[in-house]
Amino acid sequence: MLATEKQYVQWFENETLCQARWLSESKQVPPARIVLVDDKTTADEAYRLACAGTSMLWQGDFQNARQLLQALTRRIESSEQRKISKAAKKNKSAKSKDEVLMIPNLFHQQRQAQAQRSRILSRLLLALDAGYVSQLRRASDVSAACKAAFGQLDEPCLLSFRDLQGALGAAGWRAKGVQIDSLDLAIFPHYGVFAPTRHEYVQLLLDAPLPTVHDIAFDIGTGTGLLAIILAQRGVKQVIATDLNPRALACASENFARLGLSAVQLQQADLYPTDVPLANLIVCNPPWLPAKPTSPLEYAVYDVNSAMLRGFLHGAKQHLAAQGEVWLILSDLAEHLQLRSRDELLGWFADAGLEVKYRLDTQPKHGRSQDETDPLFAARSSEITSLWCLVSET
Ligand SMILES: C[S@@+](CC[C@H](N)C(=O)[O-])C[C@H]1O[C@@H](n2cnc3c(N)ncnc32)[C@H](O)[C@@H]1O
C-alpha cells in the first residue's frame, strides 16, 4: 500500500511535457516549478536554487547526485552552525535573564532548523520509471528498496533523493537487523517504523517483576513488536499488540513470525484493541516529546499536547483486570526541555485513577546525550528513561 495520496507532477524536458506520480514521505505538495540540473550544476548554484524554493530534477550521473546532496548538507550545516554560535554569543552577552534564549525556544528553534534542512534537501528530485527503475548513468538498482518502502508502483514517479536515501537506508536495516544484546536476538525494522536503536529501556522490561497472573498483556504502539516479543518470551500466555501505523503492523508481524511467536496477535487500533478480554499487564512506550510530528516516522517520537500519552493513561483502568499493572516506558527529556512538568505527568496518572507502585530508571547512552556542542546538551545529558509501574487506585 502506498503511504502517499495519489498526486501527479508535471515538468518540461526539451519542450516535452512529462508527468509522473508524486511521492513525498513528508507529504510535501507537488512542486509547481521544476528546473533541470546535472553534473555541470555547481553545489553553490543548487544551494541557492533550493533555498529559493526551486525544485531541481537531476539529469546527471546517479552517483554524482549523492555528492551534490552531501555538498548541500555541508552548506546547510555551516549556516545552522553560524546561527547557533550567534545565539550562544547572544546568550553569553545577555544583560538580563529575559534576554536569554530559553530551553523550550532553543528546542523549537532546533526543530525549525531540521524542518528547513529537510525542505532544502528535498528539493533535489529524481524520476524513476515504472517499477522504480532509474535511467540515470551509473544508477544503482533501487527497485527492491523502493518497493519495500513505498509499495508496488507500476507507473513512473518523481521523488526526492532524500526520500530515496531513506528507503535505501531502511532496506539496509531491514536486511541486517538491530541487534538487541540483552535479548540475544535481532529485530528487523521496516521503512517508516520506529527502529529500537536506543534500547536501554529493554533492560527495564526484563527487570520489572511480572504481575502474579500474567495470562493476557497488551502492547500499545508496538512498532517493530519489540516489547510484545519481550513479554511473550517472559512467559505471558497471550499478547495483543496494536499500532496505528500499517507499516508497523507489517513489520511486527514479520518479527513475530521470524521468532515463531504464535502467542502474539496484532490489531490496527488507535490505542486499545477491541473485542478482547481485560489485560493483566498493559505496556506502552509512547512518543515522548509533546510537539507536532512532520513526517509519518515522527509520529513515534512527537505527540501533539501528549495526546497519545494522555489517551493511553485515560483508557488504561477500564482495560485492566483486577490486580493488573500498567508499565509505562517514558523518557523525561520533555521535562528537561520544559515542555511538560513532572507534576503534570503525576496529575495525569491521578486523573486516570492510577497510582505509582514502583519506578525503574535507566540513563540513555546514545551519541546525542554526549554531544557537548549541542545547544540542548544540558537537557539531553540529564535524560532518564523510566518504567512506571501503575496500578488502579485503591
Ligand atoms: C516510541 S514508538 C515505540 C515502539 C515500540 N513499542 C518500541 O518500544 O520499540 C511509539 C509507537 O506508538 C505508535 N503510535 C503512536 N500513536 C498511536 C496511537 N494513537 N495508537 C496506537 N499506536 C500509536 C507509533 O506508530 C509507534 O510505533
Question: Can you give a write-up of this model?
Answer:
The chain is an alpha/beta fold and 394 residues long. It folds into two domains: 165 residues, no CATH class; 216 residues, Vaccinia Virus protein VP39 (Rossmann fold), CATH 3.40.50. The protein contains twelve helices and 15 strands. The strands form three sheets. Strands 11-10-9-12-13-15-14 form a seven-stranded mixed sheet, with helices on both faces. Helix 1 packs across helix 2 and helix 2 runs antiparallel to helix 3. The longest helix is centred in the N-terminal third of the chain and has 31 residues. The radius of gyration is 23 Å and the shape is globular. The two termini are 47 Å apart. The mean pLDDT is 91. S-adenosylmethionine binds next to helix 7 and strand 10. Keywords: Methyltransferase, S-adenosyl-L-methionine, Transferase.
Shape: globular
Considering the protein shown, what is the CATH homologous superfamily of the largest domain? Answer: Vaccinia Virus protein VP39
Query: How many distinct helices?
Result: 12
> Could you spell the SSE succession in H and E letters?
EEEHEHHEHEHEEHEHEHEEHEHHEHE
Bound molecules: S-adenosylmethionine
Distance between the termini: 47 Å
Mean pLDDT: 91
- Give the CATH architecture of the largest domain: 3-Layer(aba) Sandwich
Number of strands: 15
SS-based structural class?
alpha/beta
The low-confidence runs, each spanning 5 or more residues with pLDDT under 50, are none
* CATH-defined topology of the largest domain: Rossmann fold
State the CATH class of the largest domain. Alpha Beta
